[in-house]
Specification:
Layout: E1 2-6, E2 9-13, H1 16-51, H2 53-67, H3 71-78, H4 82-89, H5 98-107
Amino acid sequence: MIEKRKGNRVIHEPSEAEGLKNQQMMEEEARGMEANKQRGREILQERREGSGILATVQELKEKREELGITLSELAKKTGMTPSNLSRLENMQEPNPTVETLNKYATGIGHRLHISIVANS
């Protein structure tokens, strides 16, 4: 390790071997972070599909479109912003609350019905 003095600070510059080791560690950490992000996306998709939220949101959107209600109109009825409604419809919000889904359903003149069904 080479030390240089810069003002009152001492700067330690890594040797070539240390630099290579640091580079490898950083690359390994980056791979691990990307693997974690990918697994997180997979878990999120499993939750969306497994919980029926994705199907519920798609059904709400289809009903809204059938009724010819725009996102701006729905925003006025629900007190939500058009951009939040759009993110909800495009499932960019990972975990909408029952309250949010209920507001949406009420805004299009429907009600939310939740039931428990046995696994097949």
